[in-house]
Amino acid sequence: MSDNSQEGFFKSASPTFGTFTDRDDYLHPDLVHPDDTSTETQYFGFYVPEANIYGFSYFWMHPNMDSIMGGVLAAQGFKKHHLQSEMFDFLLNIRGSTVIKDDLRSYTLPNSYQVDVLEPGKKMRMRYEDAARGNRLDLMVTATMPVAMRSNNKHFEQAMKYEGELLLRGKPYKVNCHNVRDRSWGEPRAEVTMSLPPLTWTTGAFGDDFAFNCSAFDHPDLNPLSQKEFPMTPERAFNDGWVWRDGKMSKIKSVKKLTTRDPETGRPMTHMMEMVDIHGREYLIKGTITAGLPFSFWPNCMTHLGLTKWECEGLTGWGDTQEVHWTDYMRKFTKS
């Protein structure tokens, strides 16, 4: 059975921003949805572009199940399988009550992945160590923009500066990058399969004063390969997004995105995006994925995670491509 009812989870109901308070960097026990799949997440990404290293860390809690999945990965170049990553350590079944002692102010998962919220909305620290494999991570994470809260006040993104040390299979690297973190809570995230084309969540940062986020399907006007089998309307193609530019945060009003994909695996290779913000400012952004891996957060979907080089207005930035595929699309548009 296919059910697209969760498609709306990704979409903002209003072209306005919500309001962030310090409590939003902590858990939301009063906003837990009654469904078992009610979710609370915390995501950080990092990278070393000159070494083609992509890093991803995640905390995903199902509060009604007292269950946490989480961990950290770092992949150099492209991997066909997530276990080929130089660093990969995710645990699926962690009893939340044994980990959460001081809310999200400071927690450590059994695999040593640790996050400390030093100042809500402004500063965090990430740590991890696997001495047996020569892997270690210690990063300070500092905000470079205000929180961009979705209109429903249950999800946000925020560009951050990541600074610190990465030891990857015994080789040390300096981390000095910008990337966009996110948080979600209070909504179910059903694990049903969906008859949809790929859904792409992209972020990019060009320094302290220019960052963006966009969640969108390929636009039908650009004639994507999937349009005949999985028809998409212009109204459905764009979910949500924002631009932080020169000290001002603006909602994106419209997006036309087209992604090229590897015909064998379906992984994204390039993006072209025409974005217009609510003030009428236009952005033509080109993205090239330079490293990454496939990973299933639950069995009925697969997400291509990727380091993306962005070009816009003569500037070069870096960020995320996270693209979700479901089985109907994979069967029709990838080689088995």
* Secondary-structure element series: EEEEHEEEEEEEEEHEEEEEEH
- Number of spatially distinct domains: 2
Structural class: mainly beta
Strand fraction equals: over 45%
Describe the structure.
The chain is mainly beta and 336 residues long. The chain folds into 2 domains: 37-189, AttH-like domain (AttH-like fold), CATH 2.40.370; 193-336, AttH-like domain (AttH-like fold), CATH 2.40.370. It is built from 3 helices and 19 strands. The protein has helices at residues 96-99, 234-237, 327-333, and strands at residues 38-48, 53-62, 67-76, 87-95, 106-108, 114-119, 123-130, 135-143, 148-149, 155-168, 171-188, 199-205, 210-216, 238-245, 248-261, 268-277, 282-295, 302-312, 315-325. Strands 1, 2, 3, 4, 5, 6, 7, 8, 9, 10 and 11 form an 11-stranded antiparallel β-sheet that branches. The protein has an 8-stranded antiparallel β-barrel with strand order 12-13-14-15-16-17-18-19. β1 (38-48) and β2 form a beta hairpin. The protein is globular and about 50 Å long. The two termini are 22 Å apart. The mean pLDDT is 95.
Quick overview:
By secondary structure, the protein is mainly beta. It is 4% helix and 54% strand.
Layout of strands and helices, then pairs:
Layout: E1 38-48, E2 53-62, E3 67-76, E4 87-95, H1 96-99, E5 106-108, E6 114-119, E7 123-130, E8 135-143, E9 148-149, E10 155-168, E11 171-188, E12 199-205, E13 210-216, H2 234-237, E14 238-245, E15 248-261, E16 268-277, E17 282-295, E18 302-312, E19 315-325, H3 327-333
Antiparallel strand pairs: 1-2, 1-11, 2-3, 3-4, 5-6, 6-7, 7-8, 8-10, 9-10, 10-11, 12-13, 12-19, 13-14, 14-15, 15-16, 16-17, 17-18, 18-19
